[in-house]
Amino acid sequence: MTNTYLAGALVQVSTYTGPVDSPTGGFRTLAGVLADPDVVEIRWRTSENGEVTTVAYPDPRIIKDGVGLYRSNLDTTGSDASTWAYAWAGTGGLQAINAGTFYVRAAFP
Fold first, then answer.
1. Are 27 and 34 within 8 A, CB to CB?
2. Cα gap 24→22, rounded to integer Å
3. How far apart are CA 95 and CA 88, in angstroms?
4. In sequence order, what DSSP letters do the residues of the chain get, joined into one string?
């Protein structure tokens, strides 16, 4: 089930779940060890306009919580009812991707 947020919310998306000291997910090697890709990006788009926005760490919109652990707060201000899609991508020596969606409903009918 897709999470739903009210337009204007900051929606936190991350490469992992759970606490930083024992996370599930994150960027990991084939052996399962948390690791940092050479480049970490997050891309997102809305069904409202279809434009893709891409930012790469160390852009301040990406927060590094630990090795392989990243999060971002996507600003839904001004959004009408729409589905947002996002994808984390790690490239270079460690390649990985993690994607998800959420729904934003208009703040005012």
1. yes
2. 7
3. 11
4. --EEEETTPEEEEESEES-TTS-EESSB-TTS-B---SEEEEEEEETTT---EEEETTSTTEEEEETTEEEEEEE-TT--SEEEEEEEEEESSS-EEEEEEEEEE-S--
* Domain coordinates in residue numbering, the chain: 3-105
Q: Which fold has domain 3-105?
A: Immunoglobulin-like (2.60.40)
Check the CA dihedral 75-80-84-90 and report its sign: negative
Residue 60 token pair: 């301040």
User: How many residues are present in the chain?
Assistant: 109
Q: 72 is written with which tokens?
A: 């971002």
| Contact between residue 102 and residue 9 where contact means Cβ atoms under 8 Å apart | no
Query: pLDDT tens-digit profile of 14-59?
Result: 999 999 999 999 999 999 999 999 999 999 999 888 899 999 999 9
